[in-house]
Amino acid sequence: MKYLRNTLLMILAAALIMPSPLVLAEGVSSATQESKVDDVQTVDNSLKSAEEAKDPVVDKDQIDSNSPSQSSENPETPTENSSTNSPSENPAANESSKSEPNPESEPPKIDKSDERTEENATILISKISQDKKYIEIYNPTNQNVDLTGWKIEYYAGSGTKTVGKIFKDEVILANGFLVLSNDKMLAGAIKFDNNLGLAQNDGSVVLSRSDGSVADTVGWGNNSKSAGSPIKGGVKIVWRCFIGENIIDSKNNSTDFLSSKGSDNQEIVPYSRPNCKTPDSKSESPKELNKCEGLKLSEIASNIDEQFIEIINSGEKTVITTGCKLTVGDSGVRENIGNIELNPGEFLTIKIKNTKLKLPKTKGKIYLLDEAGSKIDIAEYNNIPKGASWSLIDDEWIQTFMITENSENIFKEYLDCQNGYERNALGRCVKIAIPPVESPCPVGQYRHPETLRCRKIEAAKTITPCKDGYYRSEETGRCRSIASVAAKTLKPCPEGQFRNSATGRCKKIASTDDIAKECPEGFERNPQTKRCRKIKSANMPTVGSAATEVKQVAGATWGWWVFGGVSLLVVGYGVWQWRWEISQFVRKIRESIKSANGK
Fold this sequence. Notes:
A hairpin with a 6-residue loop joins strand 14 and strand 15 (308-313). By secondary structure, the chain is α+β, with helices and mostly antiparallel strands. It is built from ten helices and 34 strands.
């Protein structure tokens, strides 16, 4: 108990003798340029929390400047409304910004559980020093903002991206600054995760929230991402100025930021609030940005040897392209079109090889921007084949194989086929069919137009005249004897007869005597022979006597003799009638037999 009582008495004596943290902080307050926090209670809470954790989040010098006693005890420090454009006005401040930080006055870590934060707060990039390699951000709100998950990215002029810082548990105070740099001489700065190049000619810095949305973008030079039009390149530092307590933010980098190339001996230090130039008769009003009205994308020739992008003035007024830009996709590279005057309906072609743009051959997206960086036209293409372009025809983007540089776009469905090929109904190039070269026919032959074969030329047949006593038949074309024909001339039929046209014979003209008489009673006329025959009785015995059978057999034999005689007469008459034809037929048979025997 004795040792415990002595220990408590020593702690109480030390607390009464040692000065407060606020007094310790005033010892190194010369590095701060301006006051930023009006609430003294907030500073006291921050200093108390610094005793519990030494992880620096907010610059110690920034906290020193928050003390209301700072401006009264150090009259050399510029007030909040004083301008820091000239370093000669406050050399002490410039020297203090270069001094090493005091380890005992590291910025305190803020207890986020006691502070109100905004995830979608408007945090701005307030300064970028390409020379000193630092970035400063500013919280224009009246609440502390938790930066966990936020990040700062740097884009070089070529479009290469570098992630400089991904915030973990940092908090930026209300109306306060936060500086990021790897320079050990810069007091209270938070280190980058990766070193940033921060080129002086062109580049961009993008501040993104934890949800991926962009909080602020600052770009300088031609090929850069920017809010509005970019700041002119070739600078050592750019800064956003203040008017009173308010920081300037019109979403246009070229008008919101001032810059220094180092030739005017002007230096802007971190955590300062430089004033803008007060408007007077000598200052110039900011120029109106070119909206590039009337300009439209007309043709994108991406998959040809010499790529180009064609623009047309579709309006009714002449357009000057100053400040108008082209960009491809999300590369961040912006190409100024130049200072060209385009009359209504006039075309302008931008050759890709003369720019820093990289145009994909088959798939991409092209943006046409005005001077403020706003999109005024867009064209997206996909699956563009070799030799085709993506063209605006009748207010519709379509693919065409007719490249029309600096002229009206024309639709052409297919590319021209090679020599010796033609396009068929399916749209494919097929080889042109060439008929084979035909060899000439031999002498005495000709080529038939239908079969394309050689055929013998037939000489005109000369008909030999028949010899005396003969004539040429019109039916057979052969010579026939006049005497034989005369002998065959039919004589006129005798009186009372006529010549049958079917048989060529003379036939008696029918008379009343030729009419058949009626058959006697008990007889009937046979319909076949026209003769009278006895009518068979129904009660006639079926089996007759022997004499009757003999009589019937005799009658049958006599009938066959009659039939044979008549047939013989008919055959004889036919032989006589066609005797000449038969003789010719027999002669041919003999000749064929002789020729067969001769072989």
